[in-house]
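queue> holo job accepted (3-isopropylmalic acid)
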Amino acid sequence: MKQYRITVVAGDGIGPEVASAAEKVLDVAAGRFGFGLAFERQPIGGEAVDRFGDPLPSVTRDACLASDAILLGAVGGPKWDGEPGPRRPEVGLLRIRRELGAFANIRPSFVPDALVDASPLKPSVVRGVDLVVVRELTGGIYYGEPRGRDASGAFDTMRYSAPEVERIARVAFEQARRRRGRVVSVDKANVLETSRLWRETVIRVHRDEFPDVHLGHLYVDNAAMQIAVNPRQFDVILTGNLFGDILSDLSATLPGSLGLLPSASLGGTVGLFEPVHGSAPDIAGRGIANPVGCILCGAMMLDHLGEAEAAGTIRGAVDKVLSAGLLTADLGGTAATDDVTTAVSEILSS
Ligand code: NAD
Ligand code: IPM
Ligand code: MN
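queue> job finished
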């Protein structure tokens, strides 16, 4: 029997609630499809700052690097907002992405028929939406140096090299080949030098390696508007770290909740699977968080581990539960986290 070692970094706020839900569903899938999952919990984020004075203790980093895959809940919260830069919970996540070399963050957003009415946008706009944001994850303004403060104020640096753009562009074109063959690259090339390099590089990679894929370009301000007004035009959206962060939250409005969206951070030594949402301090501890994003992270993880049938079955079970109208509060329902998790597990084991 195949055995996979999964490091679970559940983190803060609703992180542990949704990570437990995903673990439970993954366990059921493992039992049904005949592979083993050994989960090992390690601290990250605010929890790790409290216990170790470090948002990514070496014990966590080492466990992550030695595992077959990593499942994240969420990090951060008001308790730690006053911490100095290196002790902020979010830094734990930024460091693990970088330590792994996980430069490609895949963030799918799609609207199942059952959720067409849960969307804040019109059914005619969102029905059938199926897009993926390919976000560069280990470069750009998140990591550029110098950063800091001086007498005149504060500064960050947006920096991209051509090889960094090439490799994320390839990921987007490869995704498009497996989907509907269309990439829209999003930048701010009318203003930013980094974006001009980005666009030139994407055009070159396309011409030399992926001429069969359709490539378009949008400025990020227009892209944000287009996602809300005509989201069905998109198949793969290729963009940098900061723009991808913002546009992926925006793409969560299409199905109606951030709590639905999973992501996979790939390209490094070990795959990191992280919901798009955060620690949701406003609802933490009440057992009402939507676990679907984290459960679907579990499905993306199984795909990556080569357990595609189990992954597809989890997605099918989630779809059935949503179609049955078992919705958490973020989608206008009254179901608790456990209700959704149990229902998905029951369908999986039947
Ligand atoms: P957030 O994503 O935590 O919450 C935004 C809104 O969406 C809130 O109203 C929240 O209740 C709701 N929401 C999010 N996930 C949900 C779920 N699964 N079910 C139901 N509702 C859900 O964003 P925020 O409030 O801007 O940030 C809170 C903290 O989380 C901050 O410390 C931030 O830095 C951190 N954060 C962490 C991650 C991560 O760990 N990957 C991502 C984003 C934000
Ligand atoms: C996300 C989050 C993170 C990011 C933060 C918590 C560092 O917003 O995963 O989208 O900006 O990448
Ligand atoms: Mn974000």
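queue> The CA atoms of residues 115 and 255 lie 6 Å apart.
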